[in-house]
Amino acid sequence: MGFAHNNVLHANHFRKDWQSRVRTWFDQPGRKLRRRNARKEKAAKLGVRPLTLLRPAVRAQTIRYNRKIREGRGFTLAELKEAGIGKKEARGIGIVVDHRRRNLSEEGKALNVERLKAYKARLIVFPRNSKKPKKGDSTGEELTAPTTRSTLPIPSSFVREEPRKITEEEREFQAYRTLRNERAAARHEGARKVREAKKAEEEANKKK
User: Fold this and answer.
1) pLDDT at 204 > cutoff 70
2) CA 203 to CA 208: how far, in whole Å?
């Protein structure tokens, strides 16, 4: 092998014993089974409690994904207040609280308040001592009502419309032309204001 000019000579190391450093994954099926059994044991320990905590429905980030609704970190203090649930009480009944989150729209806030109210209506709180139930504990027939461990599903992000006929007004509407006109009007807004101001000034000078 020849080398041109004043370059560094290669020191090639080909005996690296790579076979002793190969990462194997033969325990994957066993780990899968262990995780499954651990989930079953945890579910059995929880008794009749929901398997997951209740989280808010929020819009995904950026313009590209904000049409989707997903689970957020936790409910805001304003949402809890409107639903009539204290922040300490919420943590005790499986509701996640996020004190940093802020409500940016009334629609999103109303959606989560409804979610909290629906959860509270379905909630059964078993008293620690059945002879001395505390405030907020379920009593009477509620304790014998059938229970479910699944949490409230995330609502759909859009409402389907029933099929209908296209109206004559919609048929005649020129969407592309309307958009072009609006863009042109916005683009020339500044120049138009200057022109109108100049014209008004000239008319005022003529009157003098």
Assistant:
1) yes
2) 9
